[in-house]
Design brief:
rod-shaped; alpha+beta; 7-stranded mixed β-sheet; 2 domains
Length: 206
């Protein structure tokens, strides 16, 4: 039996002991990847405690020659995969059992071969790319929110300016004596706000 246990983080892979698996999962600082080739009952029982695996899935993982399946247990999925790989100038068929749950992925291999180290490498890069995409998306959403706030602020600035101007109570304001002074002021304000709204809407600011 061979056991490989790593904590995968963006652009970093750290080897950890099997006894530290549950603690690292609880920390939530990365993905715990376990790979076991061949397995005995005591080790599997220890893995059951560390990962909080379902007892029926654990019993299935002890033996090979099972049909491919996906079973949903409390706390995670159990998968049986039939594999084929090119190894030592020939096609080698095997079987891999996978426990997949929050913060962990455990592969139990019933076949020879080099294992899934290359998959780990491609996964650590995918995690890094996903985090970069998440940060870029968050920055874009924040920029979009600031842009919309600025657009609405510009829209409300027009009536604010007009009403504050008339709130100064100047002595010489001839338009106050015009019969149409108030309706024209409202109409001009509404027209300016409508034009500005249409302009900002076309530019995607509101």
């Amino acid at each position: 039996m061979t056991v490989s246990c790593h904590l995968l983080r963006p652009n970093h892979r750290q080897e950890i002991p099997l006894e530290a698996v549950s603690g690292r999962i609880a920390e939530g600082q990365g993905l715990v990847w376990l790979e076991l080739r061949g397995i005995d009952h005591p080790t599997l029982k220890h893995l059951e405690r560390e990962l909080n695996l379902h007892e029926l899935a654990v019993e299935d993982a002890l033996s090979a020659h099972q049909r491919p399946k996906v079973e949903d247990y409390p706390g995670g999925l159990f998968l049986v995969l039939r594999t084929a790989r090119w190894w030592n100038d020939s096609v080698v068929y095997g079987e891999t059992h996978v426990f997949c749950g929050p913060g962990h992925l455990a592969c139990i291999r019933h076949d020879p071969g080099p294992g899934y180290g290359n998959v780990q490498d491609r996964l650590r890069a995918m995690i890094g790319d996903a985090m970069q995409l998440s940060l870029a998306t968050a920055a874009l959403e924040q920029s979009d929110s600031v842009q919309k706030l600025a657009g609405w602020g510009a829209l409300f600035a027009v009536p604010t300016l007009v009403f504050s101007l008339y709130g100064m109570n100047f002595r010489n304001m001839p338009e106050l004596d015009w019969p149409w002074g108030y309706p024209l002021t409202l109409a001009a304000t509404a027209a300016a706000c409508g034009w500005l709204y249409h302009h900002l809407k076309l530019r995607g600011w509101i």
